[in-house]
TrEMBL record:
Organism: Amycolatopsis acidicola
Biological process, per Gene Ontology: ATP synthesis coupled electron transport
Protein name: cytochrome-c oxidase
Catalysed reactions, as listed in the record: 4 Fe(II)-[cytochrome c] + O2 + 8 H(+)(in) = 4 Fe(III)-[cytochrome c] + 2 H2O + 4 H(+)(out)
Annotated function: Subunits I and II form the functional core of the enzyme complex. Electrons originating in cytochrome c are transferred via heme a and Cu(A) to the binuclear center formed by heme a3 and Cu(B).
Length: 298
């Protein structure tokens, strides 16, 4: 038994170090990396749930091993002798009922607490964005920002040849107001670890059509429609471009100004090009590309 224990311990160390995972990757237990504060809260719920499950698993495995190793049938045992019986053992039965019940209640408490934190909303978000889904693209409006040179709301609309860029600031509370003009769509950014269906107006069954989050990492993140919505559902992508607050402010200022070359306010691509701030200001989507809508193309 001593030798078996040493071999098992060595195998465990080899399995741990051979993976090449960092401490953070090990504690995530396969949970994907998120870019919002809300995603971090969900990750911690997942991590501690897995740890609790492993603790229970170790106990169960230990009991199975203990029963198999020390309570198996002995050689030369009386074949008519029955093993020790535990039926009608009230303390053991209460233990087997109460402990799982307590575990379920604890898990429910932390799940409900995390859900409330993820869905929580502040009364005065820093940025508000109206997200309009339509077959088969997206429109992003900024109702609380300054109007452009023509007095219109800053707006970005995708087309079959251009992926729309949803430009947002890092470290600010952002509210997304979702609305569809036709069928049911779904607003999904994998790195947000959050998805919400987008319903046509008026919403049914008290459907909550808005949510808030805070992005804590600059970068570009692909967004998708996650609800089958027709022929070109797979082409209905967008990109979230998260900029530091100073760059976001500059972007909004450029969106309100007229482009001398075109005589109309700058588009999202033109504003990002004018900023000239490296990969973050790439004027076109870098996480996805337009889908060829020519059904005869080969």
């Amino acid at each position: 038994m001593k030798r078996v224990g040493k071999v098992a311990a060595l195998a465990g160390l080899v399995a741990l170090f051979a993976t090449g995972c960092s401490g953070d990757e090990v504690l995530r237990f396969g949970w994907p990396v998120g870019v919002t504060e809300q995603a971090d809260k969900m990750r911690w719920l997942w991590t501690w749930s897995v740890i609790a499950a492993l603790v229970v698993g170790v106990i169960v495995w230990g009991l199975i091993f203990w029963a198999s190793a020390f309570h198996r049938k002995k050689k030369n045992a009386d074949p008519t002798e029955l093993p020790r019986q535990f039926q009608y053992n009230v303390p053991l039965e209460l233990f087997c009922v109460i402990v799982p019940l307590v575990m379920v209640c604890v898990l429910f408490f932390f799940t409900a607490t995390t859900e409330n934190q993820v869905l929580d909303k502040v009364d005065d978000p820093d940025v508000t964005i109206n997200v309009t889904a339509f077959q088969w693209n997206w429109e992003f409006d900024y109702p609380d920002e300054a109007k452009d040179a023509t007095g219109q709301m800053i707006r970005t609309v995708g087309s079959s040849t251009e992926i729309p860029l949803l430009v947002v600031p890092v470290g600010k509370t952002i509210q997304y107001n979702l609305r569809s003009t036709d069928v049911i769509h779904s607003f999904w950014v994998p790195e947000f670890h959050f998805k919400r269906d987008v319903f046509p107006y008026p919403e049914k069954n008290n459907q909550d059509s808005s949510f808030q989050n805070t992005i804590d990492k600059s970068g570009s993140f692909v967004g998708r429609c996650a609800e089958l919505c027709g022929t070109y559902h797979s082409a209905m992508n967008f990109e979230v471009r998260a900029l530091p607050d100073n760059l976001y402010t500059q972007y909004i200022q450029l969106r309100t100004q007229v482009n001398p070359a075109t005589g109309v306010p700058n588009t999202a691509s033109e504003a990002l090009s004018a900023m000239n701030c490296g990969e973050l200001c790439t004027p076109h989507a870098v996480t996805t590309q337009p889908f060829n809508t020519d059904r005869t193309a080969r």
